[in-house]
Amino acid sequence: MSSSQDPKSPKSPKSPKSPGGKAASPEPTPAPPTIVALSVEESREAGILPGAHWTEQPLNEVDDDGASTIGSVASTTASLSSSIFEYRTIHGRTYHGDVGNAESWQPNDQRHVDSMEILHHALMLCLDGKLFLSPLDKKKIHKVIDIGTGAGWWAVDFADEYPNAEVIGTDVTPIQPAWVPANVKFEIDDCNLEWSWAENSVDFIHLRIMMGVVTDWHSLFRNAFRCARPGGYVESMVSSAYFQSDDGSVKKGSALEQWHHIFWEAGKKLGRSFKVIEDDLQIKAMEAVGFVDVTVKNIKVPFGIWPEDKRLSELGLWWKLALEEDLEGYLNYLCNVMLGWTTEQTAAYCAHVRKEWADTNIHSWFWLRVVYGRKP
User: Fold this and answer.
1) N or C: which end of the chain has fewer CB within 10 A?
2) Do residues 213 and 104 make contact, with C-beta atoms less than 8 angstroms apart?
3) Model pLDDT, residue 79
4) 273-282: per-residue pLDDT in tens?
């Protein structure tokens, strides 16, 4: 395994390795666990300040750099069962319907789709304009799967770049565009279930920003290993929820310092970890199931316009625009359902997060990690 610099985020106990390389025997799909919000004692033990803390803190006016002016992109879907469109509504936001045992924490309404479009651009900037880092041979790429495709922008862009490849994007919710290149199609599927594609049939499997989605990373990559053809690649990109600063400007008890406590503890309640980088889940699972030439690239991403370097400032701005486009959407389910906060408390926390993101004296950054490997 090769690697760039190692993230210096807190580490958790190592997870056990599981057998690799073979398809798991079909098992009954477990029902999603009943979610019980954290108690006051559990929140305190996890280092999470109570929701009421944020409604009690004074909040001064801050300048908005224009995130709300980013235009929306119309997104519709066709030829899907009408039952798929029966969304759940939680605290005024809509989420996917019943697909497998999925328990998505991100909304699927237009505001969130707009945010994901901006995030797609930010993620490509992190890769210097590239869609992936795997060393693909364009002549050998015939079938590609984009797991957790979201709004589908990656799949569409890849299909444009590889017009002779069949590109399939999967997700639990139908928010992808209707008008796409002829070599793209979207399917409703839960990646945590047994994959239905044939063994040794896929040339490239792509997974991006799957934190808080995957129930078992070893099982996920066992599916990928089985479906990938010999010589095919799998690539996974995730981001950390841990905001850091090199100069101590992200202070203990601040909204940004609390961010990772909220996501990490909510992920424990969901049974879908947000500590993918901190626990090296991609690397351990890929190597355990049999992928070789596993390569890791860690990217230090600034948040906001504070860096003096023009490229880094632009990168930080796009991340800020993406998350501020629907900050409440990223936190609504986790804070309200997992932590038991009221809508008003979540809104107050969001306001404090925005205030700190707008403060150029706070030099926050986080890790982004790309891991890819080859099936021998």
Assistant:
1) C
2) yes
3) 32
4) 999 999 999 9
> Phi, psi at residue 6, to the nearest 5°?
-90, 135
Q: Quick one: tokens of 88?
A: 């759940």
Within the chain, where are the H helices?
40-45, 51-56, 110-126, 153-161, 217-227, 255-270, 281-289, 310-325, 327-333, 343-358
pLDDT at 31 over 70: no
d(CA 109, CA 80) in angstroms, rounded, equals: 17
Determine the Cα–Cα distance for residues 209 and 213; give it in Å rounded to an integer.
Answer: 9
Q: Which is more confidently placed, 49 or 220? A: 220
Q: Which amino acid is at 104?
A: S
Residue 293: per-residue pLDDT: 98
Alpha helices in 127-229 (DSSP H): 153-161, 217-227
Between the CA atoms of 62, 358, 153 and 367, what dihedral angle is there, to the nearest 10 degrees?
-150
Residue pair 345/54 in contact by the 8 Å Cβ criterion:
yes
d(CA 211, CA 207): 10
Give the separation between CA 320 and CA 70, rounded to whole angstroms. Answer: 12
For the domain covering 71-323+362-374, report its CATH number.
Answer: 3.40.50.150
Q: Break the chain into its structural domains and give their ranges.
A: 71-323+362-374
Q: Torsions phi, psi of 135, nearest 5?
A: -80, 75
Q: What is the pLDDT of residue 18?
A: 36
Identity of the amino acid at 364? S
**Span 280-323, pLDDT tens digits:** 999 999 999 999 999 999 999 999 999 999 999 999 999 999 99
Cα maximum dimension of the chain: 60
Q: What angle do CA 250, 256, 260 make, to 5 degrees?
A: 115
